[in-house]
Amino acid sequence: MFKKTGLIIKREYLTRVRKRSFLFTTILLPLILFGFILAIAYFSTQSFENQKVAINDSDNIFRSSFRDGDGIQYEFTDDVTADNFAEKGYSAFLILPSDFSSVNDSVSLISSKQISIITEERIKDQINDALRNKALLENKIDKQLLDSINNIKQEKLYKFSAVIRQGEKTEQSNAGLSYAIGFASGMLIYLTLIIYGTSVMRGVMEEKTNRIAEVIISSVRPYQLMAGKIIGIAAVGLTQLLIWIVFLLVLVGVAGFFLPSDALQAGSDLPMGMANAENASSAMELLEAKNLLLSANWPLIISTFVFYFLGGYLFYAALFAAVGSVVNEDAQEAQALVLPVTMPIILSFVIMAAVINNPDSPMAVWSSIIPLSSPIVMMARIPSGNVPFWQLGLSIALLIAGFIFTTYIAAKIYRTGILLYGKKVTLKEIGKWLFRKS
Amino acid sequence: MIQLELQNLKKYYASHKAVDDISFSISEGDIFGLLGPNGAGKTTLIRMITGIIFPDHGSIIYKGKTFDPVEDIFHIGYMPEERGLYKKMKIGEQALYLAMLKGLSKQDALKKTKEWFEKFEMQNWWNKKTEDLSKGMSQKLQFVTTVLHEPELLILDEPFSGLDPVNSNLIKEEIFKLNKAGTTIIFSTHRMEQVEEICKKIVLINKGKKILDGELAQIKEDFKEHIFKIGFDGELPQFESSTSTLLSQDENVLSVRIHDEASPADVLKEYLSYGTKITSFNEVLPTLNEIFIRQVEEIKTTPAFSDTI
Asked: Fewer CB within 10 Å, N side or C side of chain A?
């Protein structure tokens, strides 16, 4: 029995690993992932274009307080009106009341296009700062003093460090790092679920449309063919993962070789103000980055990642196989039928992105326990180190139960669907197959 | 000895009865024809014999024991009507793979594959991909992959569809050779004329039910209508025949039905006595197609259905 399934697994594995596209995705997927994260980081800071805002400030209260910056340039002019600001090249026109004495005074911002919330907030901040400065000056605060206070940059004032204490243990807390690892893991699981899931579906469709399915299942049981394909493709995924891990270790090793800790330490010990002060501080930053990376709980992250990678794949792969078995040559039919399977995956990703900043919210907890979304959401929570063992245990148990259940359901659909040619299957019929005894 | 026996097989689907209480048996060494129009239930029947689906009711006895879909299918070769191969796979690898799925060891599979490839002159195809083959070539390959593991029972569902006469003949000859070597063959088709050429025994099914089965020659004997063709030369003498009824006249050939109480010899004597210059005299047996159509019209069975599963 296992011999035949083994043969199928071997064929599925070898035909895929030998393909050029395997090499392609192995190299491309990490690049896409990093590119995506970089793009998000980039767009979240640079999401708006430079704007020029014209201000009609009849009393000149604000002129000295408004500062250009964050992509917004303020110009105080008298010859711009609400009717012609767009023609003069301004993206918005701000009208300030002549006298700010009552809460009923209104400020209005006129723009030719919808202005982003961020821009709106920044303009409000400017107004608030200006009003506060005005109030301080009116209360006899020295103007020079005020200016020097306003010029202090917050981040130069102190060094911030957060520490997590659990009993005796104290460790460096780093929200940024857990965010990055969590997001990358969740994203990677999301991508592999979609990529390998679709690969399973296409493999099944190929067997059905090539009409080889019936030839094969006169030699093996349908579930063996389905299991062989799912396991074979899982092996392809694991191979890919292994290549990435080895690649990452080599990269870290190379980095460590060129930047040994002693050298970094020596660099950071050099007194400031020397010629290489610049180097010293960048060496310091590198050392910090290295210690920071080592502070993450890698054994836990990697082992849970492998589990959720496999568990999530097994949960969805069987469903993808079922969809593949039901469709005929029609690609559009496949698209419509695969939607109920891809929807929860996409939704999990959306939930993951929403809860990653708040890994202990009820939404995060529940969606990391329910098997539909747990592979993606739990991986986003684990790096924070705050997942209680009962939640992790429950999530793992439910995911195992979940993929046994989906495989059982999918096998029932697959068994009938794979032998059905040239007939469009309705969801109602699929429902009937589920409740039919073998 | 009986190789395969079906007892009261039933397979019902929600909308129709695909196989409705069918029984028959096949002896070792038979070339057996499974006949019926499209949608009669042939494919469903074969899928039960090959262990692909299970009957709702009834039993399949293979060589005296209850059919075991896991073990017995090693001894069965099945070429489905809807057939195909992996397009991107190399032909040699593909044949090996399918043979090993039928339980052959790698060495045996390699040996057998090479033998068959030589027999069909396909040695230099080994590293080609299936998608590069012509339709006829891939049908040949399909046949080879079906018989590689030397099955005791070979089931061929419409084996000649898509084949040109040359390849068709090649495969027909291989079927006869395998049969001589002891392989039992089930040949399923809706093309009645092909069966008359190949099969000794048949079963005829329609709408899930068995209509008739037996030796082909016997069935034709049972359904004959005592029609004879008389070939003649020259002028046909005019007379009222007391032994037969004239059905039709076509140039120099008469078609007559002999009366129940008369014998062919009586008819011949009568025609000769009037001076007919007879050149030939032979009985016309009904074709399977005619028998089938007559049977179907006689037996109006359960509600119509349109598809096979």
From this structure: C
